[in-house]
Amino acid sequence: MYSTPKRNFKLNWVSALASFVLVAVIGTVIFIFQAKTHDQYFKTRDFNIFIVFTLTLVMILNYYILEFLFNYNSKKQIRRIKKILPDNFILDHEPDLSLKEFGERVTLMSTQNDFEMDMMKEMENFRKEYVGNVSHELKTPLFSIQGYVSTLLDGGVEDLNIRDKYLQRIDSSVERLLNIVKDLDMINRFEAGQIELNLISFDINELVEEVFDLLDLEANRHLMKLELQSTQKKLLVHADKNKISQVFTNLVSNAIKYANREGARIIVTTKEEAKFISITVEDNGMGIKPENLTRIFERFYRVEASRNRKDGGSGLGLAIVKHILEAHHQNITVESAYLSGTKFKFRLEKSSL
């Protein structure tokens, strides 16, 4: 909906110039006439005053007549164009909309329409990419299940070794499907505002140690060292403990999967600030290429797709991290140098206890 401010008098320089030219022409004719005539009356002071007054009146009248004609034709053209424009483009209480204002409004509407079209194209591209990613992620474990089941139905069930191995693989594929669905459901609920946080006070250092214990076996398998560095032995934060545990689990697990080098380390640093606890999760792994850095929090985006799928990841881990921290009204940032490592930074509100 458009609104028009209170109209003030504005001089139309086109009408004013036209009126001045007309008066100048008439004045020139009178001046020539005075120079040629021998009648002294036309050269008196009273006559000159009369001429000046008359020319001034003519200029004023001519200005308003031209304004009337311009406005009349402008409104006529606006009424014709209005038929093809939206109903709310010109409101009933705007009968005096000028052609210039009308043109400015058309330009504004055109700009807005271009922006909306660009947004719709971006959303359509995002929708296509999202649907393609979801179908691809679901297709991989489903085809695996289908292949194993077909083998078992074709007689493989009689061989106990094949049966047990394929049933185990089917179980793994089903588990991966469930993880994808659960992660998608969690993100959708976060975006819809349907997840309420259970905010409590807890020791962030203790939580990090619990996550380390949970992922210790996986870290040892990749020959990685997990380390906590803190300014204090105990740092209390006010947050949802389960959700923050998932943040650390996703970040540390990601770092383990992408370490890909000997002597890899993951260091979690906690530091007390005035009102917050600053947290850093840093590794000396392979790092992330600059062209991938801006997209790592997108759903299903993988820096190394084949490696993540092989490890059973859903491609939603960092997207979930981002949504959990946003639910806590915090942001997460990432710094990375390819072949040198990656550092994630975020903050949590410090507990007042």
UniProtKB/TrEMBL annotation:
EC number(s) per entry: 2.7.13.3
GO cellular component: plasma membrane
Domain Histidine kinase: 133-352
GO BP: cellular response to phosphate starvation
Domain of life from the UniProt record: Bacteria
Catalytic activity: ATP + protein L-histidine = ADP + protein N-phospho-L-histidine
Organism expressing this protein natively: Soonwooa buanensis
Transmembrane segment boundaries: 12-35, 47-70
Organism placement in taxonomy: Bacteria, Pseudomonadati, Bacteroidota, Flavobacteriia, Flavobacteriales
GO molecular function list: phosphoprotein phosphatase activity; phosphorelay sensor kinase activity
Name of the protein in question: histidine kinase
Pfam families documented for this protein: HATPase_c, HisKA
Keywords: Kinase, Membrane, Phosphoprotein, Transferase, Transmembrane, Transmembrane helix, Two-component regulatory system
